[in-house]
Write a structure and sequence with these properties.
The chain has 200 residues and is an alpha+beta fold. 31% of the residues lie in helices and 13% in strands. The chain has a 3-stranded antiparallel β-sheet with strand order 3-5-4, with helices on one face. The chain has a two-stranded antiparallel ribbon with strand order 1-2. It is extended.
């Protein structure tokens, strides 16, 4: 083993030991009801080709237009968030035949295998309902030509705080405009990278 490989191996070993020590100390603080969770600052890098400000008094139609421009993806389908009575949740494609008697066999057939599946397109009303909090929808960012307008990275396991912060810092170091947000659950984070001018 070369000297640089031994040094790298020792560094990785030390990192692992430090992570284990952090986990042990966090557990000890939690056990004694001592608050320890650090706040991750939510920052948006504003270095963009064209900066925009969003006025809270913007008419709904302009908010919808802005939202659709920032979070562009497939327009022929979108996912909608669901939650079961057992507390499980997720996203499934919005279907025009969902729960229709004699058409939807959701309890027997998976949606992906259903011959009656009718994917619903993204409309301004869908976006309005999402922004108004009536329902939570997502976006399928990968287009038919394998292009996309944004990237979303998800951090929710293990050392997600450190991983999200490191990823976000790398974006800053490389002058990549990015935004960091804490997940809905509070137990994870997302880093968004909006790509202007890639397509369109």
């Amino acid at each position: 083993m070369t000297k640089s490989n031994m040094s790298r191996s020792a560094e990785l070993n030390e990192i692992q030991q430090l992570r284990e020590e952090n986990a042990r100390l966090r557990a000890l603080l939690t056990k004694h009801s001592i608050a320890w969770e650090e706040e991750i600052p939510v920052k948006v890098i504003t270095k963009t080709v064209k900066s925009e400000t969003v006025d809270s008094q913007l008419p709904p139609s302009e908010k919808i237009t802005l939202f659709r421009r920032l979070f562009r993806g497939r327009t022929d389908a979108y996912p909608v968030r669901w939650q079961s009575t057992q507390g499980r949740s997720g996203y499934s494609p919005a279907c025009g035949n969902e729960w229709k008697a004699g058409v939807c066999n959701k309890k027997k057939v998976k949606c992906a295998d259903c011959p009656n599946r009718l994917l619903l397109p993204v409309t301004d009303q869908v976006i309005f309902d999402h922004l108004a909090g009536k329902k939570t929808v997502g976006v399928y960012p990968l287009l038919d030509d394998n292009g996309c307008y944004f990237l979303a990275t998800d951090f929710d396991k293990g050392e997600w705080r450190e991983d999200a912060s490191a990823f976000f810092q790398s974006c800053r170091d490389l002058d990549i405009p990015a935004a960091l947000e804490i997940s809905r659950s509070g137990n994870g984070a997302h880093v968004w990278i909006l790509i202007s001018g890639w397509k369109g």
